[in-house]
Amino acid sequence: MRASTNLHSSQFLKINYCPSKLLLEIVWQPGSRQMNQEDYQKYFYTYVDIRRNYKIDKVLLDESLMFFAPDPNLQSWASNLINTNLHIKPKQIAVVMSDEFIKQLLVQLLIEEVSHDNQEHVFFTEKQDALQWLNDNILMDGYQLST
To answer: pLDDT tens digit string along 79-111?
Structure first.
C-alpha cells in the first residue's frame, strides 16, 4: 500500500492503514502457528479498537499465513464482538484465503456472520488481485459467496 502507516506489528499480526484510500490491511503472520485462544482474542480486540479510531471504507484481510483455527465457540465470540462493537461497516472487504480448506470455511463463515447488505466482500487467492479490486475496482480472479 502506498503511504501506509503501521498501526500494529507482532509475530502474529500486522495491521497497516492507508488514510488516502481509507484502507485497512490486516496480515496474519507465520507466527500464528504458535497462537492460542487468548492471543486470538487479544488481536481481535486490537482490531476492534483500530476500527473504532480510524475511518475505514475498505479492508484487506490476508489470511494466507493464518495457521490458527478457532473453535466454534471462539468463532461465535469473534463475530459477536464485531457485530456488537462495530456499527459502521466498511464498504468493501477483500479476503486473501489460506490454501487450507477448513480455514477457508472458517473465514467464510465469519464474514457471512458479520456482513451487511451494503457491503461487498470478495475472496481471492492472490493479494495483488485483492488490492487491484480495492484500489481500482477491477475484479480479477476473485469470487463471492452466493447468498
So the answer is: 889 888 888 889 999 999 877 655 656 666 666
Evaluate whether 2 touches 20 at the Cβ level (below 8 Å): yes
For domain 5-143, the question of CATH label 3.40.525 is answered with: yes
Task: Specify the DSSP class assigned to residue 140.
Answer: -
Contact 101, 66 (CB under 8 A): no
What amino acid is encoded at 96 in this protein?
Answer: V
| DSSP codes, 53-103 | HS--SEEEEE-TT------HHHHHHHHHHHHHH--SPPSEEEEEPPSSHHH
27 three-class SS: strand
pTM, rounded to two decimals: 0.84
Residue ranges covered by each domain of the chain: 5-143
